[in-house]
Amino acid sequence: MLIALTLILAIEMMDSKHHINPNLKFKVKALKPIEYYLKGIRNRDRYILSEAITLTEKNDPKFQEWKFSLLHQISPSESSIRIGITGSPGVGKSTFINSLGTALLQQNKSVAVLPVDPSSTLSKGSILGDKTRMQALSHHDQVFIRPSPSSNLLGGVAPDSKEIIHLCEGAGYDIIIMETVGVGQSETKVENLVDILIVLLQPGSGDEIQGIKRGIMEMGDLFVVNKNDGELKEVVAKSKKNYRNAIMLHQPKHPEIYPKVMACSALEQTGILEIISELFALDAELKKKNLKTIRRKQQEQDWLFEKTRQSFFDLLMSDINFKNDYQNILQQFNDKDLSVFQAYAEFRKLLKSKLTV
Ligand SMILES: Nc1nc2c(ncn2[C@@H]2O[C@H](COP(=O)(O)OP(=O)(O)OP(=O)(O)O)[C@@H](O)[C@H]2O)c(=O)[nH]1
Ligand SMILES: [Mg+2]
């Protein structure tokens, strides 16, 4: 019964044109009519956009219908470019985003930046992050910055990133830039949200290349060696070659599109314009080969699958008896009373008994 219920929910989301009532009435006191948010977002009112994001981030079940109704009625601009920035801690991601964003603004592009604030806590981090590392950007009226405190991250990216990107595109931002912490599964997560993934690299020796996580070479669309300034310039030139050789040993992400290795100084803002030209050229090529559309569709399918799976699990766990039985099995496994296979068999039995009621 629960599976059926979850599937119905998922189908409703997919076929939302017919199932979601656009004139939904709100019982929640603080919530304004949906038109207020729609109008504000379409007019690129950053305050209202921010408010809408805060509401979509709420996990409270009473917001869910509202949230998906709002998201459904937002039409994102198809011409946006979603860019992910990843790289090991301290490589210069935030500084790079500041330089990249500033240069994009000079080319009359509007930019939404979704950075990660590593030092932040919910109380102070978001605002502090804006003010210090992204100073130049944060004052511009064509920029929207929405930092995610790292305490809120799930696998290196904010859990509602897809929804946030969608809202920013609804507000017509040309370029969406996402930063991720370069640890754990973060590249995989961010790669599934963006059109182009930039991997920032530290200038260094062969050891640095050895240290790059497996998989990242296949995931990047563009590799940039940062800190090409001062005494580091020579090292950067050498490491560029080494990185290029290492990358050529791997399958490119898209057939026949070999990722470039470039260099820049995020601090001195050199090499940034060349990177922007490459980003636009890459976007044009992906569009021409229809790869951008295919990729976005695949990402949506993955998102839907993941969300459905999560809802299903949440739904089951909301039943206190089920939760107790489930935890009981886990306990028996932890106490070595059940092997992993027995525990799984018990779990299947429990699931079956629940679904056939
Ligand atoms: N020399 C030089 N230093 C840089 C450059 N870019 C960043 N840095 C310095 O590197 C340090 C880390 O920079 P961030 O931009 O905070 O790096 P990050 O990758 O965002 O760091 P986390 O978010 O903590 O992972 C700072 O001291 C920067 O000033 C660059 O192009 N050249
Ligand atoms: Mg950073």
Structure, explained:
- This protein folds into 3 domains: 2-74, no CATH class; 81-297, P-loop containing nucleotide triphosphate hydrolases (Rossmann fold), CATH 3.40.50; 319-355.
- The protein is 54% helix and 10% strand.
- It has helices at 2-14, 16-19, 34-42, 46-56, 61-73, 93-106, 125-133, 135-138, 161-170, 186-191, 206-210, 216-219, 233-248, 272-288, 291-317, 320-334, 340-355; strands at 81-86, 111-114, 116-117, 143-145, 148-149, 175-179, 196-201, 222-225, 260-263.
- The strands form 2 sheets. Strands 4-2-6-1-7-8-9 form a 7-stranded parallel beta sheet, sandwiched between helices. Strands 3-5 form a two-stranded parallel ribbon.
- Residues 93-94, 116, 118, 179 line the site of magnesium ion.
Q: What is the H/E string?
A: HHHHHEHEEHHEEHEHEHHEHEHHHH
Lateral strand order in the biggest sheet: 4-2-6-1-7-8-9
- Poorly predicted sequence stretches spanning 5 or more consecutive residues: 1-28, 119-130
| Largest sheet composition | 7 strands, parallel
Helix content: 40-55%
% residues in beta strands: 5-15%
For the CA atoms, what is the radius of gyration? Answer: 23 Å
CATH superfamily of the largest domain: P-loop containing nucleotide triphosphate hydrolases
The CATH class of the largest domain turns out to be Alpha Beta
The fold-level CATH name of the largest domain is Rossmann fold
Domain module tally: 3
CATH architecture of the largest domain: 3-Layer(aba) Sandwich
Task: Tell me the number of strands.
Answer: 9
Q: What ligands are attached or bound here?
A: guanosine-5'-triphosphate, magnesium ion
Mean pLDDT: 82
The first-to-last residue Cα distance is 8 Å
